[in-house]
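Hey, quick one: can you model this chain's 3D structure?
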Amino acid sequence: MELHKCRSVWGAFGVAIALALPGGASAQGFPARPLSLVVPFAAGGPADVVGRLLGQRLAGSLGQAVVVDNRAGAGGTIGAGVVAKATPDGHTLLFVTAGHAGTGALYSGLPYDPVRDFAPVIGIADVPIVIAVSAASRFRTLQDLVAEARARPGKLNCAGGGGGATVTNLAFEAIKAELRLDIGAVPYKGSAPAVTALIAGEIDCDSDNLGGLLGQIAAGKLRALAVTTAKRSASLPQVPTVAESVVTGFEASAWFGILAPRATPTAVIDRLNREFGAALADPGVQERMKAMAAEPKGGTPAEFGRFLESETVRWSALIRRLNLKAD
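Sure thing. Here's the predicted structure for all 327 residues.
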């Protein structure tokens, strides 16, 4: 009898230990405190805006605050490093952008692996990359631009989302490589100065996040030639895709997603996936995202994990091929 009681006590103690461990049954008590959503970019940008929008929606359904923590710098690697080292209990998450996929190739000596040290939660949105020219440009279609580049190699100059190592620039570099085009790449410190230069006629085209150019396109200052997503954007349904225009099967986007530290319990990941999925289905959230030209993504953790792996292989190979390095 005493032995039975002893076993019962130790059994209960073992369950308590399991509940306290990050990888154990602690998912039953999740969330136990406010969540930290690390956005590795400055406040006010697209990632920050979408992160705060989703955080507000999740706070209501989770019953805990979701605090956006801006950890800007080094192309998103500072914030990613914080999350990679965080306790894997689901209370610290990373709002990741497409640039995350290329950081391993761009930065030597990263203290984490962009894929292996994170657990995928969900894909948040696809934001089309748009190739645009000034409204005064002679180029009416992407085919016009390509024809000019072939007729006058090395004479055209284009920007790419404010830098040579951004996905918005890499997408255009991939198109150039596929078509064997010699078009100069002009780096800018951000999208705003690139757009200013484009409108002024200082450069011939720009490849950038559609959300950042939509206002100027709507105002008639820029002309969109094509979007890089597999299908046309709902924000610019009259604008063809790159695949329709010049490179069959081409697809790229400035996507967003959510990652957690590696070893976060599966049950917690599944709960977060459901909560973020419900937020993405909310009409109010969809309306706000639509205004930014962001198309809600969703899906399972496994689907986002496979997507992240494929994007990492794709952009890392191009970065190494072009010999790009982080500034």
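One thing worth noting: Residues 1-25 have pLDDT under 50 and may be disordered.
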